[in-house]
Design the sequence.
């Protein structure tokens, strides 16, 4: 191996390639890239690389591959499962896409946007809006998460029930492969039936097969009418019944349908300034319904009144408030969006990002909550999330008075308890957060046999040296 490909020689070559702003090695400079958002993992790395374009990414990967140095791709570092955190051995480099933040093109006729991997999701939304289009991917971390990251994890979010996950919003990709070659698959075609759909290999692969450097994304017509409702409901079954009522009357109007437990709303009102209960009385079960239409004359308020009236008469809805103004709609959404932060401030929590068939969501919430309380008495279930697509964040807050670290030490017991219910309901142990480092040990039990074998063969074929985001996804 040439001297230039020793670790020190590699860093020297990379510094020459990327310039002073492109290679960070000082402890204080690389520290933010070494810990995950939830504080579950604290890794080490030789350096943080900050390439400014695809050619520089390719050169970085080529050099690291030659030296056998692992690479951890990183976007906004908002992974909930440690998917962008290096391991503790310190042998890897973190490759940040933050400087690759250009919108390369927007076409309002084709309804497409080509954006680099480091573009923040909120910036992509704003750029689409400036072109009188809509980029619909939306979730709590959209002000930090990046396009490359959400594609690498196949993020879902609040509007999946209407627009689908990140995968459904992607038409083409540009990817740097583990040997440094660049695959340019930035196609804007709705139909392209030419062999294997390689782009789908990299969506959800969490950087283990290559580094997404740019993507061509689908855009939509922006809504011209919008309304948000916050309702208290009798129970979980009533929440699902209300969803079915809206779907039966006008399925196309539903942009989001979210469930929240009363305890989750309590935490938001307790810990988040400006958040209050929007209803006259507290309730154990609540829903948030977001309605939208591209028709300016769409009477969403009448639609809401019709459905809520029938649901109240059936005893499903107890009370409801309609946003009415944009400020009020944002305030209602804030209750839902601040759930993760409110739970963090309340204490230690174990997060379960799971999915089941939509029809099984009420049973999931009831059974998993009861099972976790039986496992650790005093545990406070805080389920919330996307009832409309079957994805519930089945989170558990530490019992009052229990040591937080002691509770977190039972994390895998709790996750196993939730997953036992999920498996019986034909669900998945990861709905939208991915596998990362947190859930690799579950892959054998859930995806073992032919499925996991195929994944491992694909990994070995594309990344035979195993340098791409090691320790993630595969056991």
Sequence:
């Amino acid at each position: 191996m040439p001297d230039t490909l020793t670790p020190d020689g590699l860093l020297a070559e990379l510094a020459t390639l990327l310039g002073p702003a492109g290679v960070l090695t000082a402890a204080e400079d690389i520290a933010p890239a070494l810990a995950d958002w939830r504080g579950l993992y604290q890794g080490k790395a030789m350096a943080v690389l900050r390439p400014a374009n695809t050619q520089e990414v390719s050169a970085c990967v080529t050099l690291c591959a030659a030296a056998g140095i692992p690479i951890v791709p990183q976007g906004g570092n908002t992974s909930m499962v440690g998917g962008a955190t290096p391991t503790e051995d310190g042998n890897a480099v973190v490759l940040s896409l933050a400087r690759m933040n250009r919108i390369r093109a927007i076409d309002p006729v084709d309804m497409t946007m080509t954006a680099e991997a480091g573009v923040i999701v909120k910036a992509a939304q704003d750029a689409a809006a400036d072109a009188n289009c809509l980029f619909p991917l939306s979730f709590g971390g959209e002000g930090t998460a990046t396009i490359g990251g959400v594609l690498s994890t196949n993020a879902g979010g609040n509007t999946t029930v209407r627009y689908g996950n990140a995968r459904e919003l992607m038409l083409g990709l540009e990817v740097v492969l583990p040997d440094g070659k660049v695959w340019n698959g930035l196609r804007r075609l709705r139909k392209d039936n030419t062999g294997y759909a390689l782009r789908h290999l990299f969506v959800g692969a969490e950087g283990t097969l290559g580094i997404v450097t740019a993507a061509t994304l689908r855009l939509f017509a922006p809504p011209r009418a919008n309304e948000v409702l916050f309702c208290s409901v009798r129970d979980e079954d009533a929440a699902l019944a209300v969803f079915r009522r809206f779907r039966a009357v006008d399925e196309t109007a539903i942009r989001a349908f979210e469930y929240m437990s009363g305890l989750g709303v309590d935490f938001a009102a307790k810990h988040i300034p400006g958040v209050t209960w929007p209803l006259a009385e507290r309730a154990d079960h609540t829903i948030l319904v977001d309605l939208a239409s591209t028709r300016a004359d769409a009477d969403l308020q009448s639609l809401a009144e019709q459905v809520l009236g029938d649901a109240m008469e059936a005893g499903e809805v107890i009370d409801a408030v309609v946003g009415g103004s944009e400020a009020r709609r944002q305030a209602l959404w804030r209750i839902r969006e601040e759930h993760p932060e409110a739970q963090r401030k309340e204490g230690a929590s174990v997060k379960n990002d799971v999915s089941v068939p939509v029809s099984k969501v009420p049973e999931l919430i009831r059974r998993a909550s009861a099972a976790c309380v039986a496992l650790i008495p005093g545990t406070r279930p805080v389920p919330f999330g996307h009832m409309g697509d079957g994805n519930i964040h089945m989170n558990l807050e530490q019992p009052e008075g229990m040591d937080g670290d002691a509770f977190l030490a039972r994390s895998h017991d709790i996750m196993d308890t939730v997953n036992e219910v999920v498996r019986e309901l034909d669900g998945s142990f990861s709905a939208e957060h991915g596998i990362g480092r947190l859930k690799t040990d579950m892959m054998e039990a859930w995806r073992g046999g032919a499925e996991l074998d195929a994944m491992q063969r694909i990994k070995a074929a594309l990344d035979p040296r195993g340098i791409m985001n090691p320790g993630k996804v595969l056991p």
Summary: Residues 3-96 form a domain with the Uridine Diphospho-n-acetylenolpyruvylglucosamine Reductase; domain 2 fold (CATH 3.30.43.10). The first strand starts at residue 23 and ends at 24.
